[in-house]
Amino acid sequence: MSTDTHAPFEKDPGRPRSTGELIRLEKVTKRFGDHTVLDNLDFSVDAGKHVTLIGPSGSGKTTILRLLMTLLKPDEGTITVDGDQLFPASEKQVREVRKKIGMVFQQFNLFPNMTVLRNITEAPVTVLGMSKDAAEERARELLEMVGLSDHIDKHPAQLSGGQQQRVAIARALAMRPQVLLLDEVTSALDPELVAGVLDVLRDIARSTDITMLCVTHEMNFARDISDQVLMFDSGRIIEAGPPEKIFSEPEHDRTREFLSAVL
Ligand code: ADP
């Protein structure tokens, strides 16, 4: 358990938000060489929903998050975020879409030479054009929410992995994203640090209306926060549904095998 206490998350009235369908993948295929990693994939996510991607390692889950972040391009198919098509898109359009999406990675990816405060204020100031004072005020609020107010002037190396990951979550939220992509954010953590990070994410899921797409092996967490669970196998969604259905009455043998291996 984490020893840091944290304030509840509150709705951020200034954060841009949409309603209805926010993300759509249509007939998306992604290959690396002759390996088809995503195979003619279709799915959509409505604004405010929490969708969890589960399935064996190598089934294509992270590739979806990387496509949405425009870190990769699909070989076929279309991806739209908030009505804007990602490929093809001009650099300006890609920048606009990226502003709507925050991502937290397995390996934190904080800037090692910057303080915690600066890690959080850097992008809002340089990318969103926020004033330094406003960005710092928001960073302090976010650090309170993730339970790290006492660590504001430290550098990442002075923090535990769990604390670094909570800074990374605060940094993603500081950009006021409509969508938060979470890529196995607890996989690199020592077991005793996992709960503190998941608690923060549960709070975000409960008390904000940010759309969340989450790749995780933490099945209890997935059960708690998800509106929908997508089960992947070999680049396809083989089963989708609400968590109570997928975890309690899976239809597909592969889902049953996967769950019995991880639960
Ligand atoms: P998951 O998140 O479900 O574990 P990934 O989306 O990370 O799966 O990977 C799916 C497959 O794509 C894996 O077989 C992986 O080795 C392969 N892959 C991912 N990125 C690359 C890359 N840049 N070059 C070649 N193969 C890749």
TrEMBL record:
<dbReference type="InterPro" id="IPR014343">
    <property type="entry name" value="Ectoine_EhuA"/>
</dbReference>
<keyword id="KW-1003">Cell membrane</keyword>
<protein>
    <submittedName>
        <fullName>Ectoine/hydroxyectoine ABC transporter ATP-binding protein EhuA</fullName>
    </submittedName>
</protein>
<keyword id="KW-0029">Amino-acid transport</keyword>
<keyword id="KW-0813">Transport</keyword>
<dbReference type="InterPro" id="IPR003593">
    <property type="entry name" value="AAA+_ATPase"/>
</dbReference>
<dbReference type="Pfam" id="PF00005">
    <property type="entry name" value="ABC_tran"/>
</dbReference>
<keyword id="KW-0472">Membrane</keyword>
<comment type="similarity">
    <text>Belongs to the ABC transporter superfamily.</text>
</comment>
<dbReference type="InterPro" id="IPR003439">
    <property type="entry name" value="ABC_transporter-like_ATP-bd"/>
</dbReference>
<dbReference type="GO" id="GO:0005524">
    <property type="term" value="F:ATP binding"/>
</dbReference>
<dbReference type="InterPro" id="IPR017871">
    <property type="entry name" value="ABC_transporter-like_CS"/>
</dbReference>
<dbReference type="InterPro" id="IPR027417">
    <property type="entry name" value="P-loop_NTPase"/>
</dbReference>
<keyword id="KW-0547">Nucleotide-binding</keyword>
<feature type="domain" description="ABC transporter">
    <location>
        <begin position="23"/>
        <end position="259"/>
    </location>
</feature>
<dbReference type="InterPro" id="IPR050086">
    <property type="entry name" value="MetN_ABC_transporter-like"/>
</dbReference>
<dbReference type="InterPro" id="IPR030679">
    <property type="entry name" value="ABC_ATPase_HisP-typ"/>
</dbReference>
<keyword id="KW-0067">ATP-binding</keyword>
